[in-house]
Amino acid sequence: LWVQIYIKSTSAVNRILRFNADTGNNYSIRLSANGGADSTYTSLSQAWGAQASNNNSSIYLNFFIVNVSSKEKLVIGHDIIQNTAGAGNAPNRREWVGKWANTSNAITEIDLERNNTGDFDTDSNLSVLGTD
Hints:
Blueprint: E1 2-7, E2 15-19, E3 27-33, E4 39-44, E5 48-50, E6 59-66, E7 73-81, E8 92-100, E9 110-114, E10 125-129
Antiparallel strand pairs: 1-6, 1-10, 2-5, 2-9, 3-4, 3-8, 6-7, 7-8
């Protein structure tokens, strides 16, 4: 699967991604922010997350998923976060890999959620391209 997501927030909001509505601690990720050292997170309840900042930064995600029902689902992706508006503020970038440790189901649902107050703007979108 090839997934592209654009999130435009109307206020500061924590954004998270889950597969098949699974809220169990079945995810793990490794990421690097702005070319820095890797950070590893295991036994997570989400496949990806972007924390709210003091602004309502837009985010663009581009990632690929190996979606074989009998295997752990492997993910590789990039995201860019707008940061504070204006040319004097560079955007932030992250490279990340992850997995969903489910070996009995293919991904049939991708949930983009917020886990605090704040909202997504109506210009936000999620696109999935793939095949059987």
